[in-house]
Amino acid sequence: MSDGPRPAAPDPAPAHVAIIMDGNGRWAQMRGLPRQEGHRRGLEALRRTVRNAADLGIRVLTLYSFSTENWRRPMAEVSFLLGLLRRFVENDLAELNEAGVRVRIIGSREDLAPDLRGLVERAETMTQDNAGLTLVVAFNYGSRDEITRMARNLARDVVAGRLVPEAIDEEMLASRLDTAALPDPDLVIRTSGETRISNFLLWQAAYAEFVFTPVLWPDFDRKALEDALAEFHRRERRYGGVGQAAEAKVGVA
Ligand code: FPP
Fold first, then answer.
1. Ligand 1 atom closest to 217 (CA)
2. Distance of CA 220 to the CA centre of its chain
3. For the CA of 89, the nearest atom of ligand 1
4. Residues 6+ away with beta carbon under 8 Å from 107
């Protein structure tokens, strides 16, 4: 047996990766194609990323698919995106279920058509006991909307006498967000070179690392995901503390 140095164990993947999938429109425009084609290819990138994330050991993958602000787009584009969600759930659910994926949808469901709401609920119920990757699809999601709904909900409980204001703490707030029981994201990736958070997981991403890549979403592949994870591993997370290097300097145990 060799007693030489052992190769270092690979860094474990971050438990929760969230992605702002951006650049579908530009991807299409650069090719002289309609924006819809960019979204269609975006759905392929989404499927690929779900497989790659599971393969790389990521436990939770959250994908920003449609924001509360996206209703401002032309009606035809909005309908196309709603259709893509429908198509994704209808066509992919069985395969996702077989692969052990647990599906969760976050965002406001009130504005969704009843049949789409039904589909989404079926996806969640069918996969709720799966133990593989948790796929969180943020659809009609906006952080401010989520926090507003949560505040309204708390106020109702206080008015009804079910809750005293003093009992409200960070843990309770987190447990009433759409992401209840999910870990906070460790890493948020945004594609297409934009460096905004765009109303995505504002509460949950308080200590997340952010990686911005110029890759347009339809081109996002395994290498792009691995590059983002490598960048994540180069960062030192301090959670408001001073970090390991500084601790060593001052002799903190
Ligand atoms: C941003 O690109 C992308 C979106 C608003 C939609 C994301 C949707 C998908 C990736 C596929 C659909 C998946 C489901 C499940 C609905 P953009 O259109 O803003 O691109 P641009 O900034 O280049 O115009």
1. 10
2. 15
3. 15
4. 66, 68, 138, 139, 140, 141, 142, 145, 146, 178
Q: Is 3 a catalytic residue?
A: no
Structure tokens that stand for 108 in this block: 């406001």
Ordered by start, the domain boundaries in the chain are 16-250
Residue with tokens 């789409």: 116
Q: Which residues line ligand 1 (CB under 6 A)?
A: 21-26, 39, 42-43, 46, 65-66, 70, 81, 84-85, 88, 137, 192, 217
- Please name the residue that has the structure tokens 């995106």: 81
Question: How much of the chain exceeds pLDDT 70, in percent?
Answer: 92
Sign of CA dihedral 15, 108, 196, 84: positive
Integer Cα distance of 227 and 213 in angstroms: 9
The Å distance, Cα 18 to ligand 1 centre, comes to: 15
pTM: 0.92
Determine which residue's CA is closest to atom 8 belonging to ligand 1: 65
Would the pLDDT of 98 be above 80?
A: yes
Give the CATH class of 16-250: alpha beta
Mean pLDDT for all residues in the chain: 93
